[in-house]
Design a protein that fits this description.
Number of strands: 18
Structural class: alpha/beta
Order of helices and strands: EHEEHHEEEEHEEEEHEEEEHEEEHHHHH
Radius of gyration: 20 Å
Number of helices: 11
Shape: globular
CATH class of the domain at 2-58 and 100-166 and 244-313: Alpha Beta
CATH architecture of the domain at 2-58 and 100-166 and 244-313: 3-Layer(bba) Sandwich
Length: 350
């Protein structure tokens, strides 16, 4: 059997692409190396720009029914402990925090419901031929006319195809879910530290997501600080991921298409990663269904147009604590500044 499209990676980008293709009647295969549900190193934040995609898939109500927190504000904390609070827009579908283990599993099952063949615990080992593609896993080989890489910033597909760009280990990310501290309300906190930065978000009534980002040499000190702040044992296990930055890869190479972090990694400080994954998965699915793969690169560029300067500014603020402090000082002088940046980040793409 030759599939019309094979998608490697069952995260939001891959599952949405599979759902769109299967719903249109294409023979669709999704290969995922893990067994869902599973957590990921992620801030767990889903911004308003994601809801139109979820509505199109018919899962918006299901997502809203998952254990989550409707986030009311973002709290920025500078190195001296000064706090600047920015309210999130209260109207319409808002910003929520929801665990990736729940969210990703729901999307994967939706792709299956719509007719995609979903195979978990099927890591990609080799690509034996191209156009048509022959993919080798420990459980056999699979053939497809079109291949979609939806397997993240360290994409196996991109590596095997020779298009994965090298990236220096500039920073690493670590993440853990822990019990929600008393008094931690429905918010996101982004705290600058001399070692890097820490982000926390309430995820349901009993849990918070804690993310740390630092250069490798600084991470032990940042993790020790976080353990002390949250009264965690020094042996607390954290999930980790590296690198956090990578040059963008052209999203189309013939009948190979890249989506989500496999194509472009955005700064985790902005909390936009899930939304870009959803939207790029939807875009590539529509291009595959229409037969116009040539339209995907332009649509992909348009998705990020006008947003990347915020990504760059956020990366600089996160990697240079003094700059982060300066931005917060300006925010106190002109309160609308951080509100403007926050609205830009969460606004639906045009």
């Amino acid at each position: 059997m030759i599939f019309d499209v094979a998608i490697v990676g069952g995260g939001p980008a891959g599952s949405v692409c599979a759902a769109v293709c299967a719903q249109a009647g294409l023979k669709t295969l999704l290969l995922e190396r893990a067994q869902f549900p599973r957590d990921k190193v992620c801030g767990d934040c889903l911004n308003p720009a994601a809801w139109p995609v979820l509505e199109q898939l018919g899962v918006a109500d299901r997502v809203a029914g998952l254990t989550h927190t409707a986030l009311k504000r973002v709290e920025f904390i500078d190195r001296s402990g000064g706090v600047l609070s920015v309210p999130l827009p209260p109207k319409g579908p808002g910003e929520i925090a929801v665990r990736r283990s729940h969210f990703d599993h729901l999307l994967l099952e939706r792709a299956r419901e719509l007719g995609a063949i979903v195979l978990q615990e099927h890591p990609l080992l080799r690509i034996e031929s191209r156009e048509p593609w022959r993919l080798q896993t420990p459980n056999g080989h699979f053939d497809a006319k079109t291949l979609v890489a939806a397997d993240g910033r360290n994409s196996t597909v991109a590596r095997l195809c020779g298009v994965l760009k090298s990236a220096p280990p500039d920073r690493i990310g670590m993440q853990v879910h822990v019990s929600r501290p008393k008094g931690f309300d429905d918010k996101v906190t982004l705290q600058f530290r001399p070692e890097g930065y820490c982000g926390m978000a309430a995820v349901g009534a009993e849990t918070i997501n804690v993310c740390l980002v630092a250069k490798p040499k600084n991470m032990p000190a940042l993790k020790a600080w976080a353990n002390q702040q949250l009264s965690l044992d020094a042996e607390q296990e954290w999930r980790s991921i590296s690198p956090l930055a990578r040059a963008a890869i052209p999203p189309r190479h013939g009948t190979l298409l890249l989506v989500g972090d496999a194509a472009r990694v955005v700064e985790p400080f902005t909390g936009e990663g899930i939304t870009y994954a959803l939207r790029s998965g939807e875009l590539v699915g529509r291009c595959i269904v229409s037969g116009h793969l040539d339209l995907y690169p332009q649509a992909h560029r348009a998705l990020y147009r006008g947003k990347l300067w915020i990504n760059d500014l956020s990366r600089l603020a996160a990697t240079r604590p003094a700059l982060g402090d300066t931005i917060l000082r300006l925010g106190r002088i002109a309160p609308g500044l951080l509100g403007f940046l926050t609205r830009k980040v969460i606004a639906p793409a045009r």
